[in-house]
């Protein structure tokens, strides 16, 4: 009995020390209000399968309009809300935050990593992920300027192939095929529509799988995403080998894939093919899904609003009239598409192609009177402002004129591409791809939406239930 009493006493002392130590570690730390939800799952189910704006809006009302805590996709997360939150996040990049990919994304796009090796420190991950595309400046305006004519040609060809002579076309599959064709041309330098069409379904599965529960059994989202990523990877390895052969024969190096093949690290070592394949897959996914979603819902809202269609067409026909026969779009033309860009911005406000992104906290900081510990994640989302009547009058109404100078929404309320140093590097690419589509589609066609009440499925990645069939009228 005496021995047992001693052991129990020692256990009590040990537990007391742990409790005191924890209290000291959190002394003065006032965590944001909120709930971590269920054990293991946290609030992931509500986050993934409820409407994002409802998930965020409900908690802003319940806890705080500025910040709340949650646990999603396995991570303790602070959601920083509203325009002030956006400004704080975008202004303190690298000081408090670094990029963070949810675990499903890490698994899908980092197959080349040694799973047993320790992950690199968070502050170096960001550099590793984007230096490939930022340094050569492929996505800078001067590089895109050279590619614009090709975008114009590819869009014309795709519209002719998929729309000419047809009365009804499904806008969503059309947008996906055009967008993936453009992305494969730009990133890989391949122009083979049949080869690209085979990949569309795979990219859809990967896109949905980027934010999901990591349950790898047949029938689950994650299982399908894994299989799709493997199929894309296999195709990309073949493309890489073909590209290497072409380059060895003196072929041109005008795409990002060529640059990745010749790029070396400081020790002079080239990137392995498996790593190139994963990085290119990530770029293609980013340059495909968001652009295709925006084009699709632009077709919907413009088709439902004939007066907006007429204004867009008048703007684009004025540009077309200034050109000689066969002359392609030029950089200067894009600055004349002001109303068309407003239409695109309003589409992205009503149907955000990207709900938000995660950051990892590099060092403990305070915001709105609360402390966010190092190692937590921060979630930035458009859902805290997009549909708020405080910032957008009649938020349910599709009104491109709200972006005109006299009506412009307050700063940091409309941020579909993020902001600060972490602003989406593909913003300019997306802008040109969508405007090139708008220019060509309104020149040749008018359309009406077959089912104005068609449901929108998917939450993180919205899509029309029936593919958004539209009735075409050729000019």
Automatic annotation (TrEMBL):
<keyword id="KW-1133">Transmembrane helix</keyword>
<dbReference type="GO" id="GO:0020037">
    <property type="term" value="F:heme binding"/>
</dbReference>
<keyword id="KW-0479">Metal-binding</keyword>
<dbReference type="Pfam" id="PF00067">
    <property type="entry name" value="p450"/>
</dbReference>
<keyword id="KW-0349">Heme</keyword>
<feature type="binding site" description="axial binding residue">
    <location>
        <position position="424"/>
    </location>
    <ligand>
        <name>heme</name>
    </ligand>
</feature>
<dbReference type="GO" id="GO:0016020">
    <property type="term" value="C:membrane"/>
</dbReference>
<keyword id="KW-0503">Monooxygenase</keyword>
<dbReference type="InterPro" id="IPR017972">
    <property type="entry name" value="Cyt_P450_CS"/>
</dbReference>
<keyword id="KW-0408">Iron</keyword>
<dbReference type="GO" id="GO:0016712">
    <property type="term" value="F:oxidoreductase activity, acting on paired donors, with incorporation or reduction of molecular oxygen, reduced flavin or flavoprotein as one donor, and incorporation of one atom of oxygen"/>
</dbReference>
<feature type="signal peptide">
    <location>
        <begin position="1"/>
        <end position="16"/>
    </location>
</feature>
<comment type="similarity">
    <text>Belongs to the cytochrome P450 family.</text>
</comment>
<dbReference type="InterPro" id="IPR001128">
    <property type="entry name" value="Cyt_P450"/>
</dbReference>
<dbReference type="InterPro" id="IPR002401">
    <property type="entry name" value="Cyt_P450_E_grp-I"/>
</dbReference>
<dbReference type="GO" id="GO:0016125">
    <property type="term" value="P:sterol metabolic process"/>
</dbReference>
<keyword id="KW-0732">Signal</keyword>
<protein>
    <submittedName>
        <fullName>Beta-amyrin 28-oxidase</fullName>
    </submittedName>
</protein>
<keyword id="KW-0560">Oxidoreductase</keyword>
<dbReference type="GO" id="GO:0005506">
    <property type="term" value="F:iron ion binding"/>
</dbReference>
<keyword id="KW-0472">Membrane</keyword>
<keyword id="KW-0812">Transmembrane</keyword>
<dbReference type="InterPro" id="IPR036396">
    <property type="entry name" value="Cyt_P450_sf"/>
</dbReference>
């Amino acid at each position: 009995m005496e021995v047992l009493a001693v052991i129990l006493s020692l256990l009590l002392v040990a537990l007391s020390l742990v409790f005191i130590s924890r209290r000291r570690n959190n002394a003065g730390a006032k965590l944001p209000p909120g709930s971590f939800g269920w054990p293991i799952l946290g609030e992931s189910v509500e986050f993934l399968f409820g409407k994002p704006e409802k998930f965020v809006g409900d908690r802003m009302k319940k806890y705080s309009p500025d910040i709340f805590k949650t646990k999603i996709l396995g991570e303790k997360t602070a959601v920083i809300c509203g325009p002030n939150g956006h400004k704080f996040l975008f202004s303190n990049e690298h000081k408090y935050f670094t990029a963070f990919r949810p675990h499903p994304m890490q698994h899908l796009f980092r197959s080349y990593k040694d799973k047993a090796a320790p992950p690199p420190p968070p502050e170096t991950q960001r550099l590793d992920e984007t230096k490939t595309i930022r340094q050569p400046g492929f996505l800078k305006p001067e590089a895109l300027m050279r590619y614009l004519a090709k975008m114009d040609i590819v869009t014309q060809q795709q519209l002719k192939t998929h729309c000419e002579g047809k009365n009804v076309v499904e806008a969503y599959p059309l947008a996906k095929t055009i967008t993936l064709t453009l992305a494969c041309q730009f990133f890989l330098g391949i122009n083979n529509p049949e080869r690209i069409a085979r990949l569309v379904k795979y990219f859809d599965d990967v896109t949905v799988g980027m934010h999901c529960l990591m349950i790898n059994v047949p029938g689950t989202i994650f299982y399908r995403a894994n299989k799709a990523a493997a199929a894309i990877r296999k195709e990309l390895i073949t493309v890489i080998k073909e590209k290497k052969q072409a380059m060895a024969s003196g072929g041109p190096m005008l795409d990002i894939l060529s640059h990745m093949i010749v790029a070396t690290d400081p020790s002079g070592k080239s990137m392995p093919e498996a790593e190139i394949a994963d990085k290119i897959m990530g770029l293609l996914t980013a340059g495909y899904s968001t652009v295709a979603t925006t084009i699709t819902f632009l077709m919907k809202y413009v088709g439902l609003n004939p007066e907006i269609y007429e204004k867009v067409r008048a703007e684009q026909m004025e540009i077309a009239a200034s050109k000689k026969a066969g002359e392609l779009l030029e950089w200067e033309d894009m600055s004349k598409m002001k109303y068309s860009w407003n239409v695109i911005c309003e589409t992205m406000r009503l149907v955000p192609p990207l709900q938000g992104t995660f950051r990892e906290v590099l060092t403990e900081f305070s915001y709105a009177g609360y402390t966010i510990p190092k190692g937590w994640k921060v979630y930035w989302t458009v859902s805290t402002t997009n549909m708020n009547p405080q910032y957008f009058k009649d938020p349910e109404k599709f009104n491109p004129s709200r972006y005109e100078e006299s009506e412009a929404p307050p700063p940091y309320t409309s941020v579909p591409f993020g902001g600060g140093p972490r602003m989406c590097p593909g913003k300019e690419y997306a802008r040109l791809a969508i405007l090139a589509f708008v220019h060509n589609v309104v020149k040749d066609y008018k359309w009406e939406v077959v089912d104005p009440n068609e449901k929108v499925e998917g939450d993180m990645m919205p899509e029309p239930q029936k593919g958004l069939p539209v009735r075409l009228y050729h000019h």
